[in-house]
Amino acid sequence: QLLHSELAGDEVIVVSNREPYIHEKNGNRIEVKRPASGLVTAVEAVMRACSGTWVAHGSGSADRMVVDRCDRVAVPPANPSYTLRRVWLSSEEEQGYYYGFANEGLWPLCHIAHVRPVFRSEDWNQYVAVNQRFADAVVKEARTDDPVVLVQDYHFALLPRMVRQALPRATIITFWHIPWPNPESFGICPWREQILEGMLGSTILGFHTPFHRRNFIETVDRYLETRIEAEASTISYDGKLTLVEAYPISIAWPESTTASTAEESRAIVCSDLGLPEDHLIGIGVDRLDYTKGIVERFQAVERMLERHPDMVGRFSFVQIAAPSRSSLEEYQQFAARVRKLAARINARCANGAYQPIVLKAEHHDHDRLLHYYRASQVCMVTSLHDGMNLVAKEYIAAREDEQGVLVLSQFTGAARELHEALIVNPYHIEQGADALHRALTMPRDEQRERMRSLRALVREFNVYRWAGRMLLDAARLRQRERIATRIH
Ligand code: F6P
């Protein structure tokens, strides 16, 4: 309702790299999958509520072969409410724009995870060309000359300016889903000015935290000639005003109470894993990515077991790790390192079938994940750096029983809001081990008290609030612009 009143009939176009539904071919059947992506979790909920068009990269194997490069599909499949418009990329384009510049350049540049960014001119050229292709697709989809365009993430830093050139009256809201580093760190990017100029084509630029927002403003101040109004949080560049704000992203709070209880979920998960039902379980859910602190998490589990031998045989940590960007060498090496570490820890604590670390390096659907969340006494989110991290919020939403403890890295955006979690420095292995043990031995009353307050917070500051705040700011700016146009 809030979204509808903010939009008041405006045309909405979302643009992101990742598509919300992937069609995969399985024998003669086509399976529709949801990707492991915080961006999709959040934006899909908004699109279901307000309809419109979502422009994204068509990535599924079945798309090309069976859906026959169908450019437009009505989604969600079961209850269509908006249009998915796919842009097809050649393997050279995907290699240069997505794997190369976005994920070997910008991703490590913006995350302080001590992986050196790689910048190649060929990748940059593809990044520019693909941004133009998506900008053209947005312009082509637009039915009006002033649509609301929601640009998602670091794959499209140049697109706001490109769309602005074709549709000067558009309201362009760009949300950067990953952290923004300090000016020195960002300054090593050979195309830093072009990226900043591209982003300043936006009407509104959103980051998860005030800290990332401040880093961005300082970066612009360092590298471009602009007028910055710190109080109003605006930047004027090239005759255009951009509002730069922090909008912490969230999840859609589940509407109805779920079909299964925590006990039922435990039974399902324990039978999945071949564990007795009184076994203590910890859970981690991530893409298999070097920013997520999975190695440090396993080391904390190992240290906890060393310090508390009574936990050996009674506790297992289940890591669900969705394979991600696997054609990149950095990711292959990281996956191998995670597997090797899990095997070493398991060999060290070997006792019959007991495994302290259960590594499931595969994609799990949302319903399965809910069972794992409900069955686990503790959820560990130990990212080395993360824009927000929605797994933390999903664990909280799943705990209707008000039990369970969240161990949360201080380097996530989520740590700025979720104070009742056990906040840790993921690089400090002893601290992680202590927090894990504290979580596993925490009295039920304390768990309830903490979980209740976390749940109240996530329920209130949900994804509709995130989108609503951006759209409210956009509506104000649109109104101001209309008045200014009338006066001139
Ligand atoms: O949230 C950051 C993010 O990079 C999103 O942009 C993306 O959808 C998600 O992580 C998963 O990454 P990818 O789309 O590369 O699989």
Automatic annotation (TrEMBL):
Protein source organism: Noviherbaspirillum galbum
An example Gene Ontology molecular-function term: alpha,alpha-trehalose-phosphate synthase (UDP-forming) activity
Keyword Cytoplasm: no
Keywords annotated in UniProt: Membrane, Transmembrane, Transmembrane helix
Positions spanned in the full protein: 251 to 738 of 749
A single Gene Ontology CC term: cytosol
Similarity remark: Belongs to the glycosyltransferase 20 family.
GO biological process: trehalose biosynthetic process
Full protein name: Trehalose-6-phosphate synthase
Keyword Transmembrane: yes
